[in-house]
Amino acid sequence: MFAVCLYYAGNKSEAxxxxxxxxxxxxENIKQYQEKGIFEAWLRKIFMHTALAKYREKKLMFLPDYxxxxxxxxxxxxxxxxxxxxxxxLRLIQQLPPAYRLVFNxxxxxxxxxxxxxxxxxxxxxxxxxxxxxxxxxxxQKLAGQFEISTKKG
Length: 154
What we know:
Blueprint: H1 2-8, H2 12-29, H3 39-58, H4 75-83, H5 86-94, H6 98-109, H7 114-121, H8 125-153
Helix pairs in contact: 1-2, 2-3, 4-8, 6-8, 7-8
């Protein structure tokens, strides 16, 4: 579950806080688990919602809307993705502003639709789409910078 927390956290310390709060919720709600689904999926959902609740408390989730732009990977960018490690990619995701990181994780990693994300986070569907678009732009720029640095070293 620590890996799940890392996806939503801005750093390791914050992930540890999410993990501790998540386990408290698990122990408080273990009687509600009905053994109908996979236990790990039930746990994952608790930790994800714990992270979202922490962001709501801090009021870090919402950023102004940005004009949505189309996001396509060209062959050079696809090459960069094939060369970057999972840990490096996780670090880049953690550097995203909280609102962008949340939407990116919910959409790209958890597989939620923009409608579902908007309902979970209490925002407009268009805001979810624009936050995802902006997160992708930022990651694209960071990946390009990462690739330039690594090719200069090698």
